[in-house]
Amino acid sequence: MLLELQKGLRGKTMIVVRCRDCNKELKSDAGRTQTCGCSNMVTVKGDSVTARDLNRVYMINTGTRKKDTNVLSSEDIAWQESRKKRKIRKIDFEER
Prior knowledge:
With 96 residues, the chain is α+β, with helices and mostly antiparallel strands. Helix content is 11%, strand content 27%.
C-alpha cells in the first residue's frame, strides 16, 4: 500500500528527497516523474512524494521558504536591549 505525502507548494519550488535504502537523490520536476527503483519505490512528481514506507525517505529540501518572523523593528529591539540592562531597585519592607 502506497502512502502519500503532499506539500502545498507554490511557484517553481523544488523538493529534494533521498531514499535511505538505495541512497538515490530525487528532485521534483514539473512534468516528470522520478522513481528510485528500489524496493521502497520512492516517487517524486511535482509537489508530492510517495513511497511504500515514508519512514525510509529523507527530505533534504521541502521547497518552502521561511518567513521573516521578526515582528519588532530595529528600534524596538534596541529599546528592549537597553531595558534589559537596567538596574532593578530592591524595596525594603518594614516588618511589624
